[in-house]
TrEMBL record:
GO terms for cellular component: plasma membrane. SMART domains: AAA. This is ABC transporter ATP-binding protein. InterPro entries: AAA+_ATPase, ABC_transporter-like_ATP-bd, ABC_transpr_LolD-like, MacB-like_ATP-bd, P-loop_NTPase. The keyword ATP-binding applies. CDD domains: ABC_MJ0796_LolCDE_FtsE. Keywords: ATP-binding, Nucleotide-binding, Plasmid, Transport. It holds the Pfam family ABC_tran. Residues 2-219 form the ABC transporter domain. PROSITE patterns: ABC_TRANSPORTER_2 (PS50893). GO terms for molecular function: ATP binding; ATP hydrolysis activity; transmembrane transporter activity.
Amino acid sequence: MIALHDVAFAYPQGGFRIHVPHLDIAAGARVAIVGPSGTGKTTVLNLIAGLVVPLGGSVMVDGTDMAALPDAARRRFRLTRIGFVFQNFALIEYLTVLDNILIAARIHPDLPLTPNLRARARDLADAVGMGDKIDRHPGGLSMGEQQRVAIARALLARPAILLADEATGNLDPDTKGRILDLLFDQAARSGTTVLAVTHDHDLLPRFDRTIDFRDLQAAP
Ligand SMILES: Nc1ncnc2c1ncn2[C@@H]1O[C@H](COP(=O)(O)OP(=O)(O)OP(=O)(O)O)[C@@H](O)[C@H]1O
């Protein structure tokens, strides 16, 4: 489902470089990535999502080489096939909670804003415990509430792949367990492959596999 081969990447500024010889993740797997801060875990999620493009190598996602797609096609692929829970949530302040969950439908014609999709967004808001706050704006929410909205948003289109960057980092232990249950339950229903960066080692037994980021890299 996800296969990185000989991927090299460098940010234009700052000098950070990364080289990933191999990363293979099977369809439907639930995989955690752990590793020290600042080593490139988010960067690898961004490469898989096509948010950044490698200098060389291939990033195969569900049979498509993200590195070889033109910008518009890569964006379209991401919006329709990939759910991404960003570390900083990336919610849009001028939109309500409900409209944030529905954002992909606002910006992409492949995902029309049907009554069914609205109903799914409301169901997801309920499921993450935000059903009574769908008319609020992100600025009026706690960090944990914003995180739950970001998770509902990522699940909206039943993505083939869910990329989660510290998706439960701001939640208390009970809520964390419940939200992870929801995330895995939704993923299982849609056959979604889950790749989650986490610093929370208590959660690791819940994943099928854990990758230590330091084992993934080789010197450029
Ligand atoms: N846009 C950018 N331009 C230049 N350097 C960047 C950019 N984004 C990240 N970096 C640098 O790339 C390195 C890897 O960052 P990244 O966010 O991928 O690490 P991480 O392992 O996810 O860290 P954390 O666990 O703290 O979230 C860091 O040194 C960071 O400062």
